[in-house]
Amino acid sequence: DRSHQPGQSFMVGLTTVTYVFSDASNNIARCIFNVIVTTEDTTPPSITGCPVQPVVEQVELGTIGTFVTWTPPTATDLSEPVTVNVNQNPGSFFLVGAMVITYTFTDAENNQNICRFDVVVITTDTTPPTISNCPTAGASTSIELGLLDGVVFWTEPTATDLAGATLLPRTGRPGDSFPLGTTPIVYVFTDPSGNEATCTFIVTVTTATELENQLMDIINTLSGENITTKEVAMSSESIAEISDVEDFLEEDPQRVELVISSLESVVRAGEGSLNVTDPVVRTINNLMNLDRDVLEDGMIEGGRAVAALEGQISNFQTNDGNFSTVLDNVGVTAVKIDARSVGSSLAYANILPENETLLVDGAIQEGNTRLFSDGDAIPLERTAISISVPKTVLDLLGGAGVELTAVPVTFIIYGNDVLFRPSMPTEAEENIEEEDKSTVTERVASQIISAIIRTENTSIVKLPPGSPVIATFSNLKISVEETIEAQDCVVWSYNENTGEGFWTKDGCKRMFHDNHDLTMCSCDRLGSFAILIRVRKGPVEDQVALYYITLIGSIISGLALVGCLIIFVSLKSFRSKQPTHIHINLCLSLLGFYIAFLLSPLAVGKEIHCTVASVFIHFFCLATLAWMSAEAVNMITGCLCSSVVFLDNSTNFQFASYCFIHPGYALYFGFLTEVGAMFVFNFIIFIWVIRKILCRPLLVSQTAKNAKRNEIIKRVRHAIVFWFVLGLSWIFGFSAAVDTKTLIFDYLYCFFISMQGILMFLLLCVANPAFKEKFKTTDSTQTKVTRQAKTKNLSSSQLGSSSQSNIPMDSMDNPSTSATE
């Protein structure tokens, strides 16, 4: 009997099968075994919730990406547990573009199922283009009476957009003819998404006579009585519009006179509202667009316009208080400051963005002008121009009855000096020779910055001792063909009675700053400050040639001097002689001069570095000349002269374009006097020695006398050659300084001053008989040693041995050879 048969179906799991066998006697035998049925899982997990469509997220144009989330898919399987692996989880940051997300589900039998879908981040553009230079004030021109239309020009607006901006057809173009009256102009810019931006302004065509009549009417109206605020505001606005009319002012300088007179009428009205002040600033900005020749040809005193602006700002502060605006050519900030909140100084600056160069072209950076309650906080490394007024100056108004909580302070930045036309030349400009006026010019080389403290009854000009105004300027670029001969800090001096103004150095001095691109000024008064330079225009080729002649010659001379020192120190027969001691010190002094001279350009504009370089040049120059006199005590004299000049005034060593003693008493008595004295002294000594050589009696044998005389004549000849070359270099140098028009002196000076080291090497070493003899002795010794070696080798090969008799006799010709060696 059996419990199961083969081929029968069994349930999954374990089943016991029993076979029972019996015989006739009922003896029983059993066979028992297990049948195990197991399952094999080849079915992957079942996924639900896998996104069929891409997961799309939109971001604004210009955004690099965003965080994206979604509902994660799930999976089930009979063979649990089911694990999941994903390459990016919901809520992660995705860049703009598409990315495949992969979910991998795995059951216990390692069966896998994958869910894939895309996450797409796309940009949408809802921002219209950004328009720049839209002439919202309009454009205008004036035409002669009788004409019906006129050509009007303006700077076309531009637009930027991340997706690109396209200009649609406009209603007018610059250079088109427009009829008398007003014409609206519309610029429309669009981007690929259809976003639009619009610029609208008015083109006005009037007759010149009509504009002149308007200005005359303004002057007459404002000179009357019972003027209303509205009349002053309308007049101020009309002046601003007229000054902006294309070519109106350039055609006749007297129209500039009318505009300035109209401004003065507005200021005299005393109305300080914003509606009056803002057009006045715009008018000043328009006037500064004029060519300088317009004011020159009409003999127009532009300082009157500057005074009108300052007067109107004072009117404004009397009434309203704070005012700030920045235009292309002028920036104004007028505030009533609480003096108690100011640190060491109140400062105003035009700060350049970090990615812009420090050297600026005169344009004022809109949005970068800042007021600092402490001048020490100004980032000078990014300052185009700044001014600091000490707190002690603000405190002065407390004694004048002004509330220290409302001290009126005005700061103005002018982008150019068009309105600052001097009515008289400066003293330096008057001294320019007639033949130099075509190549030498004096001009303002910076923006102009003003600091004004003025109340209704009080105006501060002169400052108390020890409380100067500090102005910092970014140096404007000059042509490569120009060389700066002088650079001064100046203040604008204006006479209200005559309307005349001029630049003066009185009360201002130039300070040094580690940044060579900045110029710092200290002045003992308030006003308008600038940097005035005198430049000489010359061929660029000459400047480059002089530079390389000096550089290459000085380097070669320096190496030659090093060679001299090595020879003098290494050869015992040289360094034991007294003249060699003088030569060593002379070479050291001249080498020090070359090093200081070559490094001095790196110190220009840096106060401490320039002073140190100047002292070293001064000292080594005097030391070189002193050692040429063969008197060691003169070394102390050179050091003493440098110390005396330095202690007298260390700024004597600082100058705008080079590091040396200023022209003046320090140069005359601290350098030239000593040089002249040493020239005279050596000349007298040379004459006296030559006379003794030629005229002394015969006290010794003729042979000894001739040898001694030849030695002395040789030394005197060398000394004369030294003084001739050294003297020529300084003669040419001072000739070049006096006669700046003749470039031959510059070339001769650069050549001779840079060749002195080479001359020293040639005369003291190459032409020195002792050096030649030493060279010959050394060469002869080397030759003999070589010959001995050859002879020894020959004898050994022939005889197998050598004896004393085999030594050549010429090896004994000079028994002192070993001693010499």
Describe the fold and architecture.
The protein has five domains: 46-124, Immunoglobulin-like; 130-136 and 150-204, Immunoglobulin-like (Sandwich); 321-538, Chondroitinase Ac, Chain A, domain 3; 540-767, Rhodopsin 7-helix transmembrane proteins (Rhopdopsin 7-helix transmembrane proteins, Up-down Bundle), CATH 1.20.1070; 769-791 and 814-821, no CATH class. It is α+β, with helices and mostly antiparallel strands and 821 residues long. It has 20 helices and 33 strands. Helix 14 (633-648) runs antiparallel to helix 15 and helix 16 (702-738) runs antiparallel to helix 18. The radius of gyration is 47 Å and the shape is flat. The longest helix has 37 residues, at 702-738. Strand 19 and strand 20 form a beta hairpin. It is a multi-pass membrane protein. Residues 546-768 form the G-protein coupled receptors family 2 profile domain.
Q: Kindly give the count of domains.
A: 5
| Average residue pLDDT | 77
Structural class: alpha+beta
The shape, in one word, is flat
List low-confidence stretches.
357-362, 631-656, 794-821
CATH superfamily of the largest domain: Rhodopsin 7-helix transmembrane proteins
Instruction: Please give the alpha-carbon distance between the first and last residues.
Output: 131 Å
CA gyration radius, whole angstroms: 47 Å
Helix content: 25-40%
Count of beta strands: 33
- What is the CATH architecture descriptor of the largest domain? Up-down Bundle
Largest sheet: 9 strands, antiparallel
Query: How many helical elements?
Result: 20
**Beta-strand content bin:** 25-35%
According to CATH, what is the topology of the largest domain?
Rhopdopsin 7-helix transmembrane proteins
CATH class of the largest domain: Mainly Alpha
